[in-house]
Amino acid sequence: MADATQELLSLNQRLLDSIAGGDWATYQELCDPSLTAVEPESHGQVIEGLEFHRFYFDLGGIRGRSQTTQCAPHVRVMGDVAVVVCQRLVQRVGAEGAPTTSANVETRVWQRKDGKWRHVHFHRTPLAV
Q1: How far apart are CA 82 and CA 117, in angstroms?
Q2: Residues facing residue 70 across a β-bridge
Q3: What is the pLDDT of residue 35?
Q4: Is residue 94's pLDDT more than 80?
Q5: Distance of alpha carbon 23 from its chain centroid, rounded?
Q6: Which domain holds residue 115?
Q7: What is the pLDDT of residues 26-62, one digit of tens each?
Q8: Cα 90 to chain center, whole Å?
Q9: The CATH number of the domain where 22 resides is what?
Q10: Are 104 and 125 a contacting pair, CB within 8 Å?
């Protein structure tokens, strides 16, 4: 179980780094084509598939220097399904050179298919700072 937890935390970090870097190839590799999501950009609608997300990747990722951190992650593995919950902090340096940090609470669901973990659902809520 500990091995699966470490693997999932590593995969989750790789996924978050791909989002920050605008790395569509890695995001597509880690996500199931039927990915579902509820996030601020969807305005409460359940998004299905990857095309909605590709729009943001086509914009080029986070501009400038950035770092993504998973804070207080909790992993629950239930057979071939796992839930990773964390607070995600994104530190970046804006165009004016001033550092900023944004925070979101995220729940990400992973499913093992053919021996490989795939990201199948997430819910992201921004935290007011």
Answers
A1: 9
A2: 88
A3: 98
A4: no
A5: 12
A6: 2-126
A7: 999 999 999 999 999 999 999 999 999 999 999 876 6
A8: 11
A9: 3.10.450.50
A10: yes
| Percent of the chain residues topping a pLDDT of 90 | 80
Decide: pTM greater than 0.70: yes
CB–CB of 89/13 below 8 Å? no
- Listed in sequence order, the residues at least 6 apart from 85 whose beta carbon sits closer than 8 Å to its beta carbon are 73, 74, 105, 106, 107, 108
Strand ranges for the chain from DSSP E: 31-38, 47-48, 66-78, 81-93, 99-113, 116-126
Domain count across the chain: 1
**E strand or H helix that includes residue 12:** helix 2-21
Query: How far is residue 55's CA from residue 69's CA, in Å, rounded to a whole number?
Result: 24
- AA identity, residue 20: A
